[in-house]
């Protein structure tokens, strides 16, 4: 059976295939299972919004920096911007003092540090994190938005992050985005670097969700810590 080489396989396909398992792992963390199952408190959901605000604010600062780059600039789409939506969501959830609720988890701090390290002067690093976040939002994120409305009654205010009003046809947008990935002109070595960075982005996101679970999900005592009842 003939197996495609890296050169025969488009970069977008390689990027998607390599990240598939990580994407699935993030979708099935305890935190997201609880969120989609209606088991989180309002504070538990707001904790995710606060982490997202910090990540997207920084990533969109990087977008402003990379806008004039001949490669990375092609991926800067104003219609993807999430910062204003996240501000509105936090204001709805916490009121005018919403900035007092932006404590990052330890994993979020590591995530932010990595964005600062690679997204402001390396086009490949910027695109790796941009792809991992925004194309995920246009896919699984829309499912989360629907569940917020169905299970928590959070629709519109509080969930604007998940509404891409300026992208009426996400599948068309994602297809065009993947064409841009295939048109970067990177050699195999640079493609591999970008793929590895995207896998790190998935790991950092998963670690953040694990942190949120530790804060907001009920703890079940282990058998060793449970007293026997005679």
Describe this protein with a few key phrases.
230 residues, mainly alpha, Heme Oxygenase, Chain A, disordered N terminus, disordered C terminus
Number of domains: 1
At the fourth level of CATH, the homologous superfamily is: Heme oxygenase-like
- What is the SS-derived class? mainly alpha
Shape type: globular
Taking the sheet with the most strands, its summary is: none
How many helices does DSSP assign? 8
Backbone CA Rg: 19 Å
Q: What percentage of the residues does DSSP assign to strands (E)?
A: under 5%
Outline the low-pLDDT stretches: 1-6, 220-230
Binned, the helix content reads 55-70%
Kindly report the average pLDDT value: 91
Taken in chain order, the helices and strands follow as HHHHHHHH
Distance between the terminal alpha carbons, to the nearest Å? 64 Å
CATH structural fold name: Heme Oxygenase, Chain A
The CATH architecture term is: Up-down Bundle
CATH class designation? Mainly Alpha
Number of strands: 0
Please sum up the structure shown.
It holds the Pfam family Heme_oxygenase. InterPro entries: Haem_Oase, Haem_Oase-like, Haem_Oase-like_multi-hlx. The protein has 230 residues and is mainly α.
Question: How would you characterize the overall build of this protein?
Answer:
By secondary structure, this protein is an all-alpha fold. The protein has one domain (11-216): Up-down Bundle (Heme Oxygenase, Chain A), CATH 1.20.910. It is built from eight helices and no strands. It is globular, with a radius of gyration of 19 Å. The N and C termini lie far apart (64 Å). The model is unreliable at 1-6 and 220-230 (pLDDT under 50).
